[in-house]
Design a protein that fits this description.
heterodimer; A: alpha/beta; 11 helices; 9 strands; 14% strand; B: alpha/beta; two-stranded antiparallel ribbon; 3 helices; globular
Chain lengths: 306, 175
């Protein structure tokens, strides 16, 4: 199969074949990261612009590294130091960047649908690096890649997503990807953190952590977004940690070979205990490594569909 | 070329490789995906039989080094490069099935150089069909087959469940 899309905006719009193509391309590209000279000339002369309207270190660095390993030129653009503070709109900013011949624009924005909106206005390929609570497709792709690397296949696995699903674009993208690929996805959280009608996404809903963990192949912890605690989702961080912190004892309830994932940054002692985060079950750093390969794969595929 | 001719050509090339390199010391074979990999494997087996020692063997995918990536409409599939040894200081014999414009070999040379600094790179091909667009020449050739530009040389492999054979097909496919 060949790649036809100009942009990568959501997981929801991707077919299983498209997801598989991204994963196999990433698998082939992973070797580049293990070389002494971690660079191939595939995107020589192309320009990638990182347009991040929300703070991010990990994702931005990962995209930057991915572009550089493919020999593209990278420009990082952050709103605090730019004309955005002077009142420029997203579209005007992007059109200006496009006029400088950017081939790929990587956008993170707090508004759901921002990437989709932008993609309609520019010729450049747009990659959604997170739009509000909507989607974070590259995170889901790197998560799926990591699970597949460890478990060989996705179909038939039991995957538990734990935490604030309602406000998590990571959860939304992962649910879309994993259900498409045939996994059983369970979500577990206090009811205030599960969106109304979440079962319509094709997931099984749990409210007690221990129940959800039984038989799990992979456990995906979401970060407790403490900045949102003011919204009265929880009585306290401590109560959340008591009920939803992944401890070694709880991990025992999952399958013996179960893997533990986290999109970072970690709140040690809140959603994940240090003993689990540093255990051999944790694949959190593999996720980071794989993120670069997956983003390389996407940039490679998108740069062809001119 | 039929199966017997292919087999004889590979046997001859194995001996030529050993003769030119005065044995198999510091020698390694690297096949270019996909056809070259099968041929390199067969050459490695033959050389191992003659020399009674293992020869390092690797697989190279040149997609990322192609010179037409920025002008093609859709991106060619990337397959795995797997070279499980350090190529620096080794005498590398690069193996491909058909030598045509030379552009694949140019890409392969760049790809190899990114992986280390071999002492020497030599080139072995099953078929040389002419029409070079770059100053590239093979050290070992199974058979030189004069072709027209628009013809297409197809190599069939036992490894793909076919009978070994090389044939010329009129009417070019996308090269």
């Amino acid at each position: 199969m060949t790649w036809k899309r100009k942009d990568l905006l959501t997981i929801a719009e991707l077919s299983v074949d498209e997801i598989e193509l991204i994963l196999t391309t990433a698998e082939s590209l992973k070797e580049v990261g293990g070389r002494d000279i971690k660079k191939v000339p595939a995107l020589r002369g192309k320009t990638v612009v990182n347009l991040f309207f929300e703070p991010s270190t990990r994702t931005r660095t990962s995209f930057e590294l991915a572009a550089k390993r493919l020999s593209a030129d990278v420009i990082n653009f952050s709103p605090s130091t730019s004309s955005v503070v002077k009142g420029e709109t997203l579209i005007d900013t992007a059109r200006n960047i496009e006029s400088m011949q950017a081939d790929i624009i990587v956008l993170r924005h707090s508004s759901p649908g921002a990437a989709d909106h932008l993609a309609r206005f520019v010729q450049s390929s747009v990659i959604n690096a997170g739009d509000g609570w909507h989607e974070h497709p590259t995170q889901a792709l790197l998560d799926v890649y990591t699970i597949k690397e460890k478990k060989k296949q996705i179909e038939g696995l039991i995957i538990v997503i734990v935490g604030d699903v309602a406000h998590s674009r990571v959860a939304r993208s992962n649910i879309a990807a994993l259900t498409k690929l045939g996994a059983e996805v369970r979500v577990v959280a206090p009811p205030t953190m599960l969106p109304l009608g979440v079962e319509r996404l094709g997931v099984k809903v749990f409210y007690r952590f221990d129940d959800a963990l039984i038989g799990a192949d992979a456990i995906m912890m979401l970060r407790l977004q403490r900045e949102r605690l003011g919204r009265a989702l929880l009585p306290s961080t401590r109560e959340y940690a008591n009920l939803f912190c992944l401890t070694p004892e709880r991990l025992q309830l999952a399958k013996p070979e179960a893997i533990v994932m986290h999109p970072g940054p970690l709140n040690r002692g809140v959603e994940i205990s240090p003993a689990v985060a540093d255990s051999s079950a944790a694949v959190i750093l593999n996720q980071v490594t794989n993120g670069v390969s997956v983003r390389m794969a996407l940039m490679y595929l998108l740069s062809g569909a001119a | 070329m039929d199966a017997q001719e292919v087999s004889r050509a590979l046997s001859r090339i194995s001996h030529e490789i050993l003769e030119r390199n005065k044995g198999s010391q510091d020698l390694a074979l690297i096949g270019i995906r996909t056809g070259g990999v099968y041929l390199a494997k067969r050459l490695a087996t033959r050389i191992q039989q003659i020399e009674q020692r293992d020869i390092p063997f690797g697989e190279l995918d040149i997609t990322l080094y192609r010179d037409d990536l920025s002008i093609r409409k859709d991106q060619p599939e990337i397959r795995k490069t797997s070279i499980p040894f350090n190529i620096s200081g080794l005498k590398i014999v690069l193996v491909d099935d058909v030598l045509f414009t030379g552009r694949t070999i140019r890409a392969a040379l760049d790809g190899l150089m990114d992986l280390g600094r071999p002492a020497e790179i030599q080139l072995a091909v099953l078929v040389d069909r002419g029409h070079r667009q770059l100053p590239i020449r093979a050290n070992y050739v199974g058979k030189s087959i004069p072709t027209a530009r628009e013809e297409n040389v197809q190599v069939f492999f036992e490894e793909l469940g076919q009978v070994d054979r090389v044939s010329i097909i009129t009417g070019s496919r996308d090269q």
